[in-house]
Design brief:
alpha+beta; six-stranded antiparallel sheet; 21 helices
Length: about 500
């Protein structure tokens, strides 16, 4: 997208951004909004929603492998493992910041706006820390609202030509106009109005909408104001001034939290921002080196078809597309064995790993996990993963009944103890059950299905198919599917034994 050189140019750029621009950030926020911003969201639920978006999955794993977050020698290759390492609370924040980074890093002007981007992210981090101190039910939502209310500044600096930006700067100095007024005179719209426009168009944050409206503000809106003041004072080394002490006192009184808690929250925010700045500065260095390399190859007439990223970039964050991967499978095996060594405590984490191994490692299109009801009259679908291009076609039932037991494939799992590979030339009895209700509305042939039998008693099942790529259903993938389902049963045996001991 070219830089805007006039009021008309910028209005055109803005319309394009509202419609299609900043696509990574917009899509990420919309997907995260579907996940929800509750602290009660489970690891498996978060992983399930992230895995539905390959781009978001890649960003989470990429950040988990950055030098700031992963100082070890082993790479993180699975989403579930990345979430475990980073912590559920941090993942939504990291996903949003990564999306911001990817949208901006694609711009050829990244180096000129890195300071603005970092200022936005720092302010949003302070807002989140204050929200946590005030026991707000959704600190991540406030983080994203703060990003949205400041998005206009990033858009102006990223998409307005340098000469026009200097003209705005000169107008502020010469006429003593506020920045917003100068932007509006020259561009026809201010940065705050840009943010309000995009937030309305994208329908992302009611908190940001309130903060940008200029009316009376709620407690959450005031948190955004306080975060701006904190960042401005810290940026100008004003944290030892009387103004700083007055601000702490005001925050304490308005949010009804002790001043010491306010200070602790800001201190944690400063610590997080230092790590964030280090991460982004390293990326900025990588980007600048990449641009220099690209220009050098262009000037030398080198072949442009090869990879553009430097070696540093590829080792710091590149991950392969989600295809059948021995690396993913081995990583998940490693995680499960480590869990066995430490002792299983969370069956949801276990099944998140199992399902991710099948979905990503074996590149399956549909993966279901069902758990037997307490009265043993039906299976309840607890978790599922479906490739994005199949989501609209698939209707996943909440329960699978045991009606018509003689021809009910799922009822027959109560008497099975081994995984089944159902295919057209397979066992005709099993095939007939797969083509009968209720299986016929769920099952796609060929498919894999395995009863989960800790202590030789079926308590659930795992199902997988690659309906878009049936060639993935082969001896190798069935063998790995079998091993993963057996590990699930083994892991649940550990959980059951531990529960009985306690």
């Amino acid at each position: 997208m070219e830089k805007a050189a006039s009021k008309e140019d910028f209005q055109k750029v803005l319309r394009n951004i509202a419609k299609e621009g900043l696509p990574v950030f917009r899509k990420t926020l919309q997907n995260l909004k579907l996940v929800g911003f509750s602290d009660q969201v489970s690891l498996s639920e978060l992983a399930k929603n992230i895995l539905r978006d390959p781009g978001l999955s890649a960003r989470i794993v990429k950040l988990a492998n950055s030098p700031v977050y992963n100082t070890g020698v082993f790479r993180i290759r699975s989403v579930t493992r990345a979430i475990v390492m980073l912590g559920i609370r941090n993942v939504i924040t990291l996903a949003a910041t990564a999306a911001f980074f990817e949208d901006v890093v694609n711009s050829r002007h990244f180096s000129s706006i890195i300071s603005r981007l970092l200022k936005m992210l720092k302010e949003a981090e302070y807002a989140k820390q204050l929200a946590m101190a005030a026991k707000d039910p959704s600190p991540e939502e406030i983080f994203l609202a703060d990003l949205m209310q400041n998005l206009g500044y990033l858009v102006v600096e990223a998409f307005v030509d340098r000469a026009t930006l200097k003209e705005i700067e000169s107008l502020v100095k010469m006429s003593d106009l506020p920045l917003e007024a100068a932007q509006k005179r020259i561009l026809g719209i201010s940065a705050k109005e840009v943010a309000a426009f995009l937030n309305r168009e994208w329908q992302l944050s009611e908190i940001a909408d309130e903060a940008l409206s200029g009316g009376r503000k709620s407690t959450r809106g005031r948190i955004l104001d306080f975060a701006t003041q904190i960042e401005n004072l810290l940026e100008n080394n004003g944290n030892n001034s009387s103004r700083w002490q007055a601000l702490i006192k005001e925050i304490s009184a308005e949010l009804h939290i002790p001043a010491q808690i306010v200070m602790s929250a800001i201190k944690q925010g400063v610590h997080n921002c230092e790590a964030l700045e280090k991460l982004y500065r390293e990326y900025a260095y990588t980007v600048s080196r990449t641009e220099l390399g690209r220009e050098k190859r262009k000037n030398e007439g080198a072949d442009q078809s090869g990879p553009e990223l430097s070696e540093k970039t590829s080792t710091a964050g590149h991950i392969k597309p989600a295809t059948a991967s021995d690396e993913v499978i081995l990583d998940i095996f490693q995680d499960i064995i480590a869990m066995m060594y430490r002792g299983f405590t969370d069956p949801h984490l276990l099944f998140s790993l199992i399902m991710e191994g099948i979905y990503t490692g074996l590149s399956m299109d549909v993966v279901l996990f069902g758990l037997l009801s307490r009265d043993r009259k039906f299976f309840e679908i607890r978790h599922f993963l479906v490739k994005p291009d199949l989501a609209d076609e698939m209707e996943i039932p909440e329960i699978i009944s045991f009606k018509n037991p003689k021809v009910n494939l799922f009822y027959s799992l109560l008497r099975e103890d081994s995984p089944l590979w159902i295919r057209e030339k397979g066992d005709p009895v099993v095939l007939a059950k797969a083509k009968s209700a209720p299986a016929v509305s769920i099952v796609n042939i060929p498919c894999f299905i395995a009863p989960i039998c800790p202590k030789r008693r079926t308590i659930g099942f795992v199902y997988a198919d690659a309906r878009k790529r049936p060639e993935h259903m082969n001896e190798q993938t069935f063998g790995i599917f079998t091993t993963l389902s057996q590990l699930a049963a083994l892991g649940l045996s550990f959980v059951t034994s531990s529960s009985n001991q306690h």
